[in-house]
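Task card 7
Instruction: Convert sequence to structure tokens.
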Amino acid sequence: MKTIAIVDDSPDDIARLAALVDRYFGGDKGAYGVVTFTDGLFLLDGYRPIYDVIFLDIEMRLVDGIGCAAQLRIIDDEVPVVYTTRMAQYATDGYEVGAMGYLLKPVNYYALRLALDRALGKARRQAPVRPWLTEGDEHVAVDAREVDYVEVSGHDLSYHCGGRIYHEWGSLKQCSDRLASLGFSFCSRYCLVNLSHVERLRADSVVVGGDEIPVSRRSRKRLSQELMDFYQRGSGVHGDIG
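Output:
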């Protein structure tokens, strides 16, 4: 899952850029999340190197984009930075602090796509998770993002994926460790669910991939909070942070 930061003091510009990012990822909320900041100061405050790309407005009131990037490079010299601005002449100053380029406002989709293609090519990326599973007599490399949920019986792991079931020998804990970064969470000792595939949360169960899965009493509160956090990270623009 890619994490995109948008730093801009204009709500309209944030909304436009976030909509273009959503278009870039084909509306797949499980593939990306957008975090927004209304000033460079708020990005820097408590900064953690979790972003794959930062879109940084040059003209902001407290800490502008150039000053923000200069401080950012002290604590993170890897994250791709793309400036956004209405004044192209300001953006050239940004190359001194390692910006990949700039986008002129109002940003158009073609320019955004080129910037993201370039930035994500450089961004720290995790290798795709494709467990080698069995289906009957065949071995299949399955994209873990397409898995609805995983059940365990003894040491037999059953991967439910769009009505098909694949198998693997192992423990659910090992499976959880491998899939945690993709948004999988325990709903009981015997089952992991893909949070991006949850269709309905009930008092004692969740509906995933059309199947109703029991949720243990000890897992209910945690699973509900994890679902809320997951969709807040991945549903576009969510207000200010900082």
